Amino acid sequence: MSLNMHRFARSLPAPALVLAAAAQAQCPASVPTVLVERFISADCEVCWADGNALVGRPFVLDWIVPGTRGDEAPLAAAAIVEATARAGALPHAGSVERRQTLPPKQGLRISVEDGPAWNGYMALRLRVQLGGDTFAAGTAGYLALVENVPAGDEGNSIERNLVRVLAGPLLLDGTRAGTEHLLALRVPFGAKAERLGGVGWVQAASGQVVALASANAAHCAS
User: Fold this and answer.
1) Is 108:222 a contact under the CB 8 Å cutoff?
2) Domain limits, the chain
């Protein structure tokens, strides 16, 4: 998958690779230290409609997990198969929320850039650097197209950051000089391109997210 994406990205015209200037900004003083992932079964429409405001300012990702009703599930159009393994077994209620603290790692820098949608695709770039060190075996990178859905816009009572496409695991080699992945991800049917943004993260073999970045907010870890 990654190889094919790399080939396509290199063939894209220049306008599709004009990456967001915000991603070039310096890291803000307040870097997110908590990641909250909300998993919703595609069978549970009410789970999408309801929701509680989160305490603090965690970085939030919403996932819709394919349900037992397949394409007939009310949220099937936004479900992605990668959410199944990430979510694990969902409770009978149809949703679960998981929270993890992002552990600081000295010398680690991660940034994400995204380009405007062009011809049904959006270019994303993940840059990772771990100065003077190497990652533990099994550590990998991920890139996602995330759609910011304002409260009340799609029948949801709270703002959601819906993962629409996920690419990975991506190899993290040559960390001393920095690793870069440039991909072109297809904009999924039904997504509003103007609401899409790039999000990337580094994840240990255990599943622990080590650091993450958002092109829109220029988040990074160091």
Assistant:
1) yes
2) 2-214
The phi and psi torsions of 133 (rounded to 5 degrees) equal -150, 175
Yes or no: say if 168 and 143 are a contact pair by the CB < 8 Å rule.
yes
Structure token pair of residue 65:
């997990």
Amino acid at 57: R
User: Is residue 155 a contact partner of residue 49, using CB atoms and an 8 Å limit?
Assistant: yes
Structure tokens at 69: 């009703």
Tens of pLDDT, residue by residue, the chain (222 residues)? 232 333 334 444 443 444 433 333 334 434 668 999 999 999 999 999 887 777 778 999 999 999 989 999 999 999 999 999 999 888 777 899 999 999 877 788 899 999 888 889 999 999 998 877 778 889 999 999 999 999 888 888 899 999 999 999 999 875 556 789 999 999 999 899 999 999 999 999 999 999 999 986 433 443
pTM comes to 0.82
Parallel/antiparallel/unpaired status of strands 34-41 and 59-65 = parallel
CA torsion angle 71 72 73 79 (round to 10): 10
Percent composition of the chain: helix, strand, coil (DSSP 3-state, to 5) = 15, 35, 45
Contact indicator for 20, 216 with CB cutoff of 8 Å = yes
Would you say 47 and 95 are in contact if contact means Cβ atoms under 8 Å apart?
Answer: yes
- Beta strand pairing call for 121-130 and 108-114: antiparallel
